[in-house]
Design goal:
With 326 residues, the protein is α+β, with helices and mostly antiparallel strands. It has helices spanning 13-16, 24-37, 67-74, 194-201, 209-213, 224-233, 247-266; strands at 2-4, 10-12, 43-48, 79-85, 88-93, 97-102, 107-112, 114-116, 127-129, 144-150, 155-160, 166-171, 308-313, 316-321. The chain has seven helices and 14 strands. The strands form five sheets. Strands 3-10-11-7 form a four-stranded antiparallel β-sheet, covered by helices on one side. A four-stranded antiparallel β-sheet has the order 4-5-6-12, with helices on one face. Strands 1-2 form a two-stranded antiparallel ribbon.
């Protein structure tokens, strides 16, 4: 079944109802790509049409009164490096300020050469990629709402069909004291052990394990897709509580978490929805799902006779197999 969304664009029915926020592997893939091209470049101009008067847009690039502040601390500044904290992309500048970008539900960043479309009417491309045969021309890449012009004559563009994403600028040395103080640890850090993992998740012993895995104050970076996949790999049902897990299951889940997140990175992220890398190309983790969006399909676990089910847990969809997950 197909359904029409946006003007002239048809997409599979299941994708319309499965818009998912980029998670750790997608943000990591973006940051890795940007780190290869941005350091030593400077930002010579900024353009946006992302204006909003919503309360949540205040003091972000969507706020017309805040935009001059961004330009003041960003223009003509050299980029030192690009890094990640949870689902945030951090672009550190030479003046001690950092551009913080959160891609939210449908956002992604791309790097290339563009020209502005003077006939833009809200339905076509606002900025057009110069290279005609590039993946940048993917229809999912046309919703460009922020453009940073760079000193190498390329552009860093933020594509976001729903305009949920945010861009702000803050002092680099205050980020971890203020903006990120609520975030849990990074799950792929080498010093993050199975004991740390258990202690963090046991902060919410009565909640469903899937919900706790996605709580950014408990552990940073995990969302709907990867929580489903790691729970299936560990053979744990998503509705079970943290305190119900045995020592063996904690070890299995910790191992599955590491493996699934690394696999997501290896496949260049998940493009179930809008996500694309900085070249405008799709990741391929969505082609390797074991459970996510596979409702009523046969379980892929060797020897398992079950089928994938879907259930809402904590307001989010969960996909699992009752036969091989317990």
């Amino acid at each position: 079944m197909r359904t029409k969304i946006l003007v002239g664009l048809y997409v599979p029915y299941h994708i319309v109802y499965s818009l998912v926020m980029p998670e750790l592997p997608e943000v990591h893939t973006t940051v890795t790509g940007l780190q290869k091209v941005l350091p030593s470049l400077s930002i010579t101009d900024i353009w946006t049409d992302m204006w909003s008067t919503a309360k949540l847009s205040k003091n972000t690039i969507k706020d017309r009164s805040y935009f001059p502040y961004i330009k003041k601390y960003v223009l003509n500044q050299s980029i030192l490096h690009v890094r990640r904290r949870a689902k945030h992309i951090l672009i550190d500048l030479e003046n001690g300020f950092t551009i913080i970008i959160h891609m939210k539900m449908t956002g992604h960043l791309m790097y290339g050469k563009y020209k502005h479309n003077p006939t833009y009417n809200g339905r076509e491309w606002s900025w057009i990629p110069i290279e005609k045969e590039s993946p940048l021309n993917d229809p999912y890449n046309r919703h460009i709402h922020v453009v940073f012009t760079l000193s190498d004559k390329h552009h860093l563009v933020f594509c976001d069909s729903r305009k949920f994403g945010t861009v702000v600028v803050e002092k680099t040395d205050s980020l971890h004291l203020e903006r990120f103080k609520h975030l849990g640890p990074e799950p792929l850090e080498t010093d993050f052990t199975v004991q740390n993992f258990k202690e963090r998740l046991m902060k919410s012993p009565a909640r469903a394990i899937k919900t706790v895995l996605m709580d950014q104050t408990i552990i940073a970076g995990i969302g709907n897709i990867y929580s489903d996949e790691m729970l299936h790999r560990a053979h744990i049902l998503p509705m079970r509580t943290s305190r119900s897990l045995s020592e063996t299951e904690w070890k299995l889940l910790f191992k599955a978490m590491k493996e699934v997140l690394h696999k997501g990175i290896d496949f260049g992220g998940d493009s179930t929805s809008d996500y694309r890398n900085i070249q405008g190309a799709r990741g391929t983790f969505h082609e390797n799902h074991l459970v996510y969006l596979r409702t009523r399909e046969k379980c892929k676990t060797r020897g398992c006779t079950g089928f994938i089910e879907k259930q809402t847990i904590g307001g989010r969809s969960a996909h699992f197999c009752k036969v091989c997950q317990a």
